[in-house]
Write a structure and sequence with these properties.
Layout lengths: L5 E6 L4 H8 L1 H4 L3 H8 L5 E10 L6 E8 L4 H6 L2 H18 L4 E3 L2 H4 L5 H5 L5 E2 L2 H18 L8 E5 L4 H10 L5 E5 L3 H12 L5 E5 L10 E4 L18 E4 L9 H5 L4 E4 L2 E3 L16 E3 H11 L14 H14 L2 E2 L3 E2 L2 E2 L2 H12 L13
Parallel strand pairs: 1-3, 1-4, 4-5, 6-7, 6-9, 7-8, 9-10, 10-11
Antiparallel strand pairs: 2-3, 12-13, 12-14, 15-16
Helix pairs in contact: 8-9, 8-12, 8-13, 9-10, 12-13
Bound molecules: NADP nicotinamide-adenine-dinucleotide phosphate.
The site of NADP nicotinamide-adenine-dinucleotide phosphate has 31 residues, from α6, α8, α9 and α12.
Length: about 375
């Protein structure tokens, strides 16, 4: 039985050639610069209907739609925000015509400019960025990974890369009271100091800040969540036995880490199992029933019939994170299994990294890398 509960979610290409080819093989054969140039003139695209999401709490069904904004992250960040807003609002209007009651902003459509505020003002449908549930799941994932690897969080150095961002700042606030040393990495000194002050207020024994990625050699556990359009973490930046939860899309961690650092575990952040026999009608590269946390936030709010602009802007409150986590858990959303560079993490992967980690000294300031 279907109800009228529904949502729409905006996705966008990350890699112009690869992602455009999935929908339009002929267009995908054009050179990247031409696809990028033409994307400003492409209309928003209806991607698919989503069926079969079912609440574990009350059995209610939910359906939805994927709609796509044709701009890549690099394109969205290179045009004036007003131009990017225009394209995203146009895509939101397509969702409104479909009858969407709630609109989720995927990846860079929530990063650009003021984090959805202007976009929401220009649309009738309520809008959510999905960042609150993304924060909840990133923190849960790094703690779960630490447990599997027998890394004691309370004695560890935890680093947040992109700590001045909307997602990074709240991840820092949540992990500060749980670890021995919180390392905040970012580019804006003043904002880093603000985040550090909040972290110290939680009682964290040691909070340090850095503008250098090389500081990461101190960290046992890392959440990375920048809006850089290219990788910012290379193989030589990481400590031996480190665990990295990469929430950023596009990724922050260079693919070379997978081949050059067998001692390190990189997991994809924000991966969530959706309740019900969901059919997304579109392959975005995940195993069945898996979605990004930002998508799951939109779905969970619709199942809860909270058709409201839940997460907007760059100043996210811890209370918003805790509330959406409760709502999502109630309806049956849960952390997906670990994946690393598009592959499931095996028991052998965990055992290998655990073995490296067990050989290490416990001091939080030792910095060791192999490369
Ligand atoms: N997996 C999911 O479900 C999911 C959901 C939502 C968002 N995301 C991803 O999360 C990321 C961040 O989102 P957000 O909303 O927190 O963005 P945001 O508020 O714009 O923050 C971005 C952060 O990245 C830093 N940064 C940007 N470019 C950088 C560079 N070249 N080198 C180092 N640091 C850089 C910024 O530093 P400054 O302060 O110095 O500018 C800021 O700290 C994006 O990649 C987004 O796609 C993923």
């Amino acid at each position: 039985m279907k109800t009228e509960d529904n949502f729409a979610f905006i996705i966008h290409p990350i890699d112009a050639k690869r992602d455009v080819s999935r929908k339009y093989p002929a267009l995908g054969r054009l050179p990247v610069w031409l696809i990028d140039f033409l994307s400003l003139f492409f209309p928003p695209v209806f991607i698919s209907q989503i069926k079969g999401i079912q609440s574990a709490a009350n059995g209610r069904f939910l359906h939805g739609w994927f709609v796509a904004c044709p701009l890549t992250p690099a394109r969205m960040m290179s045009v004036p925000p007003a131009v990017a807003y225009g394209k995203i609002v146009q895509t939101g209007r397509l969702a409104e015509r479909l009858g969407a009651k709630l609109l989720g902003l995927g990846a860079f459509t929530s990063v650009v400019g003021d984090g959805g505020i202007t976009i929401a003002q220009r649309l009738k449908v309520p809008v959510t960025t999905g960042d609150s549930y993304t924060i909840a799941t990133a923190v849960q994932a790094i703690i779960a990974a630490a447990q599997q690897l027998h890394i004691p969080v309370a004695q560890s150095c935890v680093a947040i890369v992109g700590a001045t961002g909307a997602i990074g700042a709240v991840c820092a606030e949540m992990l500060a009271p749980q670890c021995a040393h919180l390392l905040l990495i970012g580019r804006r000194q003043e904002k880093l100091q603000d985040v550090a002050q909040k972290a110290r207020a939680t009682g964290c024994p040691q909070v340090t800040i850095s503008n250098e990625m090389s500081a990461l050699t101190q960290a046992h556990l890392v959440i990375t969540v920048t809006s850089a359009v290219d990788a910012v973490i290379e193989a030589h930046h990481l400590r031996q036995g480190a665990v990295v939860c990469d929430v950023a899309r596009p990724r922050d961690v260079s693919r070379q880490v997978a081949t050059r650092r067998p001692d390190v575990l990189v997991i994809e952040g924000g991966m969530v199992e959706v309740p019900g026999a969901v059919d997304f009608g579109f392959n975005f590269g995940f195993p069945p029933r898996m979605a990004y946390a930002c998508m799951a936030e939109t779905m969970a709010l619709a199942l809860e019939q909270r058709y409201e602009s839940y997460t907007l802007g760059k100043d996210i409150k811890l209370s918003q994170v805790l509330t959406i986590d409760k709502i999502a858990t109630k309806h049956g959303f849960k952390l997906g299994g670990f994946r690393s560079f598009e592959k499931a993490v095996s028991e052998e992967d965990i055992a290998r990294v655990r073995a490296y980690h067990l050989r290490l000294p416990t001091s939080t300031t030792d910095s060791q890398t192999i490369c």
